[in-house]
Each structure stands twice: as structure tokens, then as C-alpha cells.
Amino acid sequence: MVKKSPSILLHVLLRRLWLRIDLTWRRLKANWLIFRSDPLAMLGLMIIMIFALMAVIHPILIETVWPSGIYDPLTGFDMQTVPHPAPPSSRHLLGTDALGRDVLSMLLSATTPTFVIGLTAALATAIVGTLLSVIAAYFRGAADAAISNLADVFLLFPAPVIMIIVGARFRAELTPISLGLIYGFVTGMGGTVIVLRARALQVMAQPYMEASRIAGGGPFHIIIKHLLPAMLPLAALQMMVAVTGVVIADGFISFFGLTRATSNWGTVLYDAFVYSYSVGLDTATMWNALLPAAACFTFFALGFYLVSRGMHRVANPWQREEFLSRI
Amino acid sequence: MIRYLVKQALLSLVKLFVFVTIMFFLIQIMMPGDFVDQFSLTMNQRERDALREELGLNLPIWQRYLRWMGQILRLDFGESFSILGSGGPPVSAILKTVIPPTLLVFCTGTALAFLIGLWLGKVTAWSQQRVVSGIVTLGSLALFTSFPPWMAWLVTQIFSRQEQFTLVGGSARGLANLPFPGLDRELWRDSPISPDVIAFRMFLTLLIATVLFVAIKALAQRYLRLRIPGLVVILLIAASAVGSWYVMGTEKMSLDIVNSAWIALVTYTIISFGETMLIMRSSMTDVMQEEYVNTAKAKGLPSHIVRERHAARNALLPVLSRLVISLPYLTTGIVIVESALNWPGIGTALWNSLYWQNMPVVMAILLIVGVLSLFARLVLDVLAAYLDPRIRHGEEKPIAI
After folding, report:
1. Model pLDDT for residues A3-34, shown as the tens digit of each residue
2. CB within 8 Å: A158 and B286
3. What are B82's strand-pairing partners?
4. What's the CA gap between A179 and A289, in Å, rounded?
5. Complex ipTM, two decimals?
6. Residue B396 in 3-state DSSP?
7. B28: nearest CA in chain A?
8. Contacts of A156 by beta carbon, 8 Å cutoff, 6+ apart
9. For the whole prediction, is pTM greater than 0.80?
């Protein structure tokens, strides 16, 4: 028996590591090729990147160009521009709202919380949904019955209504993270489990699962090595869908006036509606408060939805094979 | 099949029970204060305590729960809270007035959105013109992801019906009995029938006509080998529904209700058809790769026949089971659209009574929503089993993503 010297061991380890990195890189590259071939998905990615830029640029602008007395998203007021709401001008690119705040600044500052809430909800949905569906599909029997019936119950819960109920109690203390967690758990236990479980059952029926079991793989090994990797693309898809849902739901409860502490696209819309409801609709409100905020909602949700459609192609093994064979 | 149905129905009852229980505790523990607290300006402490005692709000929550559950098991929804104590209008009377408007608008809207979505998804997936289908997809997506109150506002602006739009947060009114927006007062002043009864009749005739003509279509196809186009069936349904108003002699009132309802109908349809379209589109794209579609094309069948009979029929199955998942989101949509448009249905009533913490009404509405969702789910299950022989043989349902 040959005695391995430490240097050879190190060499083997490095070699393995390199192989692993190379494989991951190739898979990522193939995924990216598939994703890139869909113009709509690329459009979605571009929209998301623009929003990310918006989130980054706001603190920089406040620090450098915009004096915070005038441009603060919550308390800013411009004495020189009268009357408020003012139409777009060079000082205020999107005009001001009825309280004299700069609309562009409000929209930009609302981008970061929106990303946070979206990300939290997406992660919560994916983690809860994947965990439960993997357990249900691997162990079947009583666990499966319990989980899928529980999912049916959770499917009945209207997530925004629950967010309103919780929001009524906590009001100001309610951070985007906790709202995202609520939404993520409700949808993650409900619809996501049902979709992911269906896929997990398909994966479990594959011959390589049987092979792995015969080769002596325990539950932990099979789930980590074989089941989870096959589920991840679909879980990512569900994350994107959750972002779309939570953004609309969050805007909805801000629109109810329940999370007024933070500025938010829903709040911008709500204020504009209040103004136009009491004063009547003029072009200034129409342009500077209603349209941009509503457009932000639509485009943010649209961006994530488009990316999720692109991921659908990446996640679908059938289409994937077909595509890779063509190029 | 019958055994399966009975089993599912019993399971649904259990699910409903769990859902209602969780909601009961969630709302009462989470919402600050209770129904009586909002009168703190007009009543003193003693009066409020007396009111609490009369309404049973001084009991611990589990006793309230048992009392309420006992009532529900006797199929008695109880009486809604009122400032005078428990003498409020019975909840069942409120339900009777708020359910028909919702059924009328949202069943019709869902059916319309479903049809439009299926058709668009089918056509855009099949079409070779990438640019056109891309634009159509993008457009429907933008409508689907738009912010619902804003879309409601936009629709009222476009059709200059500003008076129908209300601010959700600002307009929560006392109880559920809102008037229909924009009705002709002269017409209804000395009418013996109230608008919700007419709305219910309209919904019933529409439902009967739909079932009738869809059955006729299916039978004609099966026994006479006669294909009736879908558009003709839809026109026949609409015509017979309108005709039935004249037969019942309520045509003026029905038209007035249509005049009031179509804004909500249009808004809801616009917001919701995008989802069906996307699911159908991706399902159709998957099916189009299948060998039997190639075979059908190679046989020389015309393109539209391959699309309708070979591709679309199979693409429909995963869409149906996917719709089951998005069905409960209907509740959310109903609450948002109805309260933004002041439509006097379940959603507005739920929001208003939640705002006032009028628990008997809130719980009754949640119960009804749960029953409707689970019932629709059961119907979709049966439909899927009818359409797909694989499910009848115990395989798992395919779900479109």
C-alpha cells in the first residue's frame, strides 16, 4: 500500500476543488446562455438593474448635490417653489407633492426598502417552501399528508389582509423585513409548497434516485446531493414570483395608510390620491405623483416577473436540453 | 370518483375549520382594541363596560370562540355588533345583500379573464411572429403587475366615472350595506325589489345559461359530431342572459345595474387576465415540443386545428391545476378592487367590518370566502379528472409554472 505524502493529498484536494469550481462555472455559463437568449428576460434584468442603481444613487445624491432640508424624502420642503404640488422643473425633476416634498427623491428613497422587503419575502418563501416540499416528497406517508393539507389551509389565507391585521397592531415598529417575513411564510407554506412538491415528486420518480438509494445513500445524502439541486431552479423561480406579490401587497397596505412611518411608493400614491380627492385632479398631481409611483410599481414587479419567466426556461430540464443541443 | 369526492369534501370541512379558527384568534389577538373602544369619545367607562358585557366581549377569548363556533355549527351567523348592543341586523341579512354583487362581478370577471387569458396565451405561444407576441405578452404582464387601486382609478378616469372611485383608507363606512354606485334614483324609488335581488337573479340566469350552452356544445360535439365555435357559445350565453331580463320584466333595473357594474368588471378583468395568459403560454410552449404535435403537423392538418385540438387541449390541464393555487388570491383581488371602486360586495364589507372590528360579520365573510374557494377547488379537481384520464388512474396532477 502506497503511503500518500501530504503534498500529494493537497494536490488531490486542490484538483477536486478545481473540478468542482469548473463544473459550477460551466453550469452557470450554460444557464446564462439560455437566459440570455430570451430578450424579455434580459429586459427584466435591465429593469432590475436600473432600480438597483436608483437604490444606490439616493444616499449619494443626498450627500452631495441635494441639500437635505429641501430634498429629504420625509421632511423636505422647498420654499422657493410655490405653490405645491408643483409640476416638473429643473429643480424638481418630477415635481413636488402636496406637502412640498421632491417626488423623485421620495421614489428613489423608497427603492431600498422595496428591495429589502422583496428579498426577505423571496428568501422566506424559498426556504420554507423547499424544506417542506422536500420532506413531503422524500418521506411521503403521514408527513406528506400533513404538509400538503397544511398547504391547502395556508392557501386560503389572503396574505395582504394578514399583513394589514398585523400592521394595525405594530404600525411604526413594522420594518420591511418583518412584513417580508409574514408574506414569505404565508405564501411559502401555501402555494409554493404545492408547486415545489409536485416537482419534487417528479424528481423522486427518476431512475437516478433509485440508483442512489440502492448504492446505499441515506436520506440526508439523497436530499442534499440529488433532490435539492434539482429543486433549486424552481425555488428561484418561486422567489421571483414572491417578489412580485410582496411588492404589490406592501404597496397595498401602505396605501391603506398603515405603514406611514417609512416613505413608500404606496404612500406616495396614497398622498396623491388624498390630495386629488379633496382638491380635485390637476395636471401637477396627475403627472408628478400618480404616474411615476404607479410606474415604479409596475416596472419593479414586471422586472422580477420577466426574470422569473427567463428562469423558467433555465429551470425546465426539457427545454434546457433542447436549447443546449441547438447551440 | 364518488368516494374521492366525499373524502375531499370532508377534508375540505376540516381545512375550513382550521382556517376559520386561526383567523378568529389572529384577528382578535392582533388587532388593537375591540369594537367598543371606538366609542370612547361618546360613551363613558360604565356605558362601555355595559356594552361589552352585552356583546360578550368581556369574556375570555376561548369562551368567545366556543360561543361563536356553537352558533356556526347551528348554521346561525348571529347578529352583527351595533352601538345599541346585540340588536344589530342579523349577519345573514348582510350576507344576503353583499354576496350577489360580488358573485355577479367577480364570477363573470374571472370567467372573462380566463377566456381572454387562455386565448391570448394560446395564440402568442403558437404565433411565429416573435415581435408581436412579445409585445402582447409584455402588455398583459404590465397590466397584471400594475397596482390594483391605481388601475381602478385609471379606469374610472378613462371612462369619466370619477364618482365611483373612493379612497380605501378614508372611506370605511359603518356597515356593509352600501348602495350600488351610480344607480338611477328615480327608477329604484318605488321599486318593490332591491338591487341586490336583481343582481342575484342576473347572476343566476347567467350561470344557468352558461351551464346550458356548454352542455349543449359538449353534447353536440359528442353525438352529432358538430363543432360549435366558442365565440358563438359566448354570444348565445350573453344573448340569453339579456333575454331573460326581458322575460322577467326587470330589464330597466338590470340595465341600470350593468351600468353600475361594468367599471368594476372591466377593472377586475384587466388586472387578472395576465396571469392565466402567462401560465397558458408557458404550458403551451411545453406542449408544442411534444412529438404528437409534430405528427399532427406532418399529417398535413391545418395549423389552427393542430393548435386547438392537439396542443391547446393538452396545455389546458396543467393550467387548471395551477389556477387552483391562484384561486385564493382572488380574495385579495376582490377586497382591493371592490373597496377602491366602492362596489357593495364581500370585499368592501370585509374591509369595513375589519376596520370596525365587527367580528361576527368579519368571520362570516371569511367563512363564506373559504367555502367558495374550497368549493371552486373541488369543482376544478373534478373537471381535471374529467379532462385527464391519467388523474383518474391515480397519477399526480401536472402543474404548470
Report:
1. 667 888 899 999 999 998 998 898 888 888 88
2. no
3. B85
4. 25
5. 0.80
6. coil
7. A165
8. A190, B15, B16, B19, B328, B369, B370, B373, B374
9. yes
Residue A204 at interface with chain B, using a CB cutoff of 8 Å: no
CB contact under 8 A, B282 and A248: no
Which residues, 6+ apart, have CB-to-CB distance to B172 below 8 Å? B351, B352, B355, B356
- The helix, strand and coil proportions of chain B, stated in percent and rounded to the nearest 5, come to 75, 0, 25
Q: Do B145 and A297 touch (CB under 8 A)?
A: yes
Asked if A67 and A99 touch (Cβ cutoff 8 Å), the reply is no
Summarised one tens digit per residue, pLDDT across range B176-223 is: 456 677 677 777 777 777 888 888 888 999 999 999 998 998 899 888
- Exposure string for B354-389, b = 16+ CB within 10 A, e = fewer: bbbbbbbbbbbbbbbbbebbbebbbeebeebbeebe
Separation CA B47–CA B45 (nearest Å): 6
Query: Which residues of B are less than 8 Å from A274 in CB distance?
Result: 167, 170
Contact check, Cβ <8 Å, A302/B142: yes
CA distance B322 to B279: 8
Distance from CA of B85 to the nearest CA of A (A): 25
Q: Say yes or no: A169 contacts chain B, CB-CB below 8 A.
A: yes
Beta-ladder partners of B85:
B82
Nearest CA in chain B to A156: B328
Distance from CA of B289 to the nearest CA of A (A): 8
Is B34:B53 a contact under the CB 8 Å cutoff? no
Report the residue from A158, A234, A256 with minimal CB separation from B331: A158
- Cβ–Cβ gap A255/B169 under 8 Å: yes
Secondary structure E strands in A72-211: none
